[in-house]
Amino acid sequence: KVNWFSNPLYSHAGGYKFRMNVYINGCGAGKGSHLSVFFCLMRGENDDNLTWPFRGTITVSLLNQLWPERHHRKSIVFDDESPNISGRVQEVERESGFGHQTFISHSELTHREEQKCCFLQNNHLYFRIDNIDIQPGDFRNWTTSEASSVQDTLQRPWLGVPLTYQPPYIIKLTQHMEKRMTNADWYSEPFYSHYRGYKMCLNILPGGHGTFKGTHVSVYIYLMKGENDAKLNWPFRGTVVVSLLNQLQNDNHHTQKIVFSEATPIKSSGRVTKANRAKSGRG
After folding, report:
1. Where are the beta strands (DSSP E) in the chain?
2. Greater confidence, 250 or 199?
């Protein structure tokens, strides 16, 4: 029995610590016939600031090395019906895992030309963590009225939908031509980099700004004063990827990266303490 553990990984910056656990020859119902895949919570340096027990969904894919659209994907849901392995890890390095004993059969791993599948190639398997959606415990017991009262602030549908702080966010700009003609300075509602992360907003000038006034649409990201700021690292360092969506096709969007680096002025990347948002945006 080969029991393999990945290197530690995190749900998000400042988040839950995990390891992926793979039984090559399977275990339980999959012993001898399947690959078994589990995720194990670990004792982490952020645990004091997190909500326990962990509640969320981890989506993992075994990559098809011949045909990128035919990966083998499954989700592992940590909810109120999960075994008692989602609590905070204190006495040991990691908890027992939770996942799928029959993640994929051994017969499906090898090359199948008719289905354009080959998960095992050159004696290697590649796993990809596609997404980790967190359902924050702080909001689990809210009433409908309490949830509705913060719906606009959180920028997420609430009723019946687990709250997530993971991009992508869809931001709709209305009356573009009117704003362009008047050179209006428009700001989106706030959003977050991740759960308990940096608070920011999008600033759009449809009529352009600076040397591009009258010829381009200008876009900036503004950091905002947020409730998580005391536990975050400053100045902010990272890349925000913004796409203007092509409304005729699901691809060919216009994408730009906004980078907050060491060269970014502190007035754009530093912690906002006096005003509601930073003095200057980055874009």
Report:
1. 3-5, 9-10, 17-23, 34-41, 56-62, 72-78, 98-105, 127-134, 186-187, 191-192, 199-205, 218-223, 238-244, 254-260
2. 199
